[in-house]
Amino acid sequence: MRYYTEAIRGAAYHLCETGRELTQPWHQVDVPTPVPSVERLIATAQYIQNATQSQGTSSQKLATTLQLATQVTEQLTTGATSATETATQLEQVVQQLRSVVGK
After folding, report:
1. Residues 6+ apart with CB under 8 A from 38
2. CB atoms < 10 A from the CB of 18, how many?
3. What are the distances in angstroms from CA 103 to CA 25, 75, 92, 94?
4. From CA 103, how far away is CA 99, in angstroms rounded?
5. How far apart are CA 4 and CA 53, in angstroms?
């Protein structure tokens, strides 16, 4: 996800730079310059769209993974609690048997 964040940051920088080019006084700009600048704006915006879509997909996968990890942790906790309770009950049974049998 960090990759996509950096990619979006870089693309936004390029958008700003291209926008600055287009805000120059028109008498200082070559006539063909605006068309490639607008094309760069469009390409950069499309790049940002793709990067944010990929970042969204990665976020969903991460959320799913965290949810599964939480479920597994809960199951392990439940299992450990059951094992502890069973061990306690077995210890009580052993103590009762010892008291009946006489060590």
Report:
1. 22
2. 19
3. 101, 38, 14, 10
4. 7
5. 9
CA 80, CA 9: separation in Å to the nearest integer? Answer: 46
Whole-prediction pTM: 0.60
> Could you tell me the residue ranges of all domains in the chain?
2-101
DSSP letter assigned to residue 27: G
Q: Hey, what are 50's tokens?
A: 């793709």
How do residues 5-36 score in pLDDT, each as one tens digit?
A: 888 888 888 888 888 877 777 666 665 667 78
Tokens of 3: 């990759």
Positive or negative torsion for Cα 10, 15, 19, 22? positive
Q: CA-based angle 36:39:43, to the nearest 5? A: 135
Minimal CA–CA distance to 37: which of 24, 50, 48? 24
